[in-house]
Amino acid sequence: MNKTELIDQIASAADISKAAAGRALDAAVEAIKGALKEGDSVNLIGFGTFYVGERAARTGRNPRTGKTLEIKAAKSPKFRAGKGLKDAVN
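User: That's the sequence. What structure does it adopt?
Assistant: C-alpha coordinates below.
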Protein backbone atom coordinates (compact mmCIF):
# COMPACT_ATOMS: atom_id res chain seq x y z
CA MET A 1 0.00 0.00 0.00
CA ASN A 2 1.38 3.41 -0.91
CA LYS A 3 0.48 6.85 0.45
CA THR A 4 -2.31 7.47 -2.08
CA GLU A 5 -3.96 4.14 -1.30
CA LEU A 6 -3.67 4.85 2.42
CA ILE A 7 -5.32 8.26 1.96
CA ASP A 8 -8.16 6.60 0.01
CA GLN A 9 -8.60 4.06 2.82
CA ILE A 10 -8.65 6.77 5.51
CA ALA A 11 -11.12 8.88 3.52
CA SER A 12 -13.58 6.03 3.08
CA ALA A 13 -13.27 4.76 6.67
CA ALA A 14 -13.69 8.23 8.23
CA ASP A 15 -16.24 9.41 5.65
CA ILE A 16 -14.20 12.52 4.80
CA SER A 17 -12.79 13.90 1.57
CA LYS A 18 -9.52 12.63 0.16
CA ALA A 19 -8.02 16.12 0.57
CA ALA A 20 -8.92 16.19 4.26
CA ALA A 21 -7.58 12.66 4.74
CA GLY A 22 -4.31 13.67 3.03
CA ARG A 23 -3.95 16.70 5.29
CA ALA A 24 -4.69 14.56 8.36
CA LEU A 25 -2.11 11.95 7.37
CA ASP A 26 0.51 14.62 6.65
CA ALA A 27 -0.21 16.28 10.01
CA ALA A 28 0.14 12.96 11.84
CA VAL A 29 3.45 12.18 10.13
CA GLU A 30 4.78 15.67 10.91
CA ALA A 31 3.71 15.35 14.56
CA ILE A 32 5.54 12.03 14.86
CA LYS A 33 8.65 13.49 13.17
CA GLY A 34 8.58 16.50 15.48
CA ALA A 35 8.29 14.37 18.61
CA LEU A 36 11.15 12.09 17.50
CA LYS A 37 13.31 15.10 16.65
CA GLU A 38 12.87 16.35 20.22
CA GLY A 39 13.86 12.92 21.54
CA ASP A 40 10.37 11.91 22.65
CA SER A 41 8.64 8.66 21.80
CA VAL A 42 5.13 8.35 20.35
CA ASN A 43 2.98 5.59 21.90
CA LEU A 44 -0.16 4.54 20.05
CA ILE A 45 -1.88 2.03 22.32
CA GLY A 46 -2.73 -1.14 20.42
CA PHE A 47 -0.61 -0.12 17.42
CA GLY A 48 2.96 0.46 18.54
CA THR A 49 5.67 2.86 19.61
CA PHE A 50 7.86 5.13 17.52
CA TYR A 51 11.15 5.98 19.25
CA VAL A 52 14.71 7.11 18.59
CA GLY A 53 17.44 4.51 18.80
CA GLU A 54 21.12 5.26 19.30
CA ARG A 55 23.87 3.67 17.26
CA ALA A 56 27.35 3.86 18.71
CA ALA A 57 30.37 4.93 16.68
CA ARG A 58 32.12 1.98 15.11
CA THR A 59 34.84 0.96 12.72
CA GLY A 60 33.78 -0.18 9.26
CA ARG A 61 35.53 -1.42 6.17
CA ASN A 62 35.22 -0.20 2.60
CA PRO A 63 34.44 -3.38 0.65
CA ARG A 64 36.03 -2.07 -2.53
CA THR A 65 39.39 -0.96 -1.12
CA GLY A 66 39.50 -2.90 2.14
CA LYS A 67 40.41 0.33 3.98
CA THR A 68 39.07 0.78 7.51
CA LEU A 69 37.05 3.87 8.28
CA GLU A 70 35.31 5.37 11.27
CA ILE A 71 31.51 5.45 11.18
CA LYS A 72 30.05 8.21 13.36
CA ALA A 73 27.48 7.63 16.07
CA ALA A 74 23.95 8.23 14.81
CA LYS A 75 20.33 8.41 15.90
CA SER A 76 17.81 6.33 14.02
CA PRO A 77 13.99 6.25 14.08
CA LYS A 78 12.60 2.89 15.15
CA PHE A 79 9.19 1.27 15.56
CA ARG A 80 8.12 -1.43 17.99
CA ALA A 81 4.79 -3.07 17.14
CA GLY A 82 2.19 -3.28 19.89
CA LYS A 83 0.16 -6.31 20.90
CA GLY A 84 -2.92 -5.23 18.92
CA LEU A 85 -0.93 -4.92 15.69
CA LYS A 86 0.88 -8.21 16.28
CA ASP A 87 -2.42 -9.99 16.91
CA ALA A 88 -3.99 -8.47 13.78
CA VAL A 89 -1.13 -9.74 11.62
CA ASN A 90 -1.08 -13.25 13.06
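The first helix runs from residue 3 to 14.
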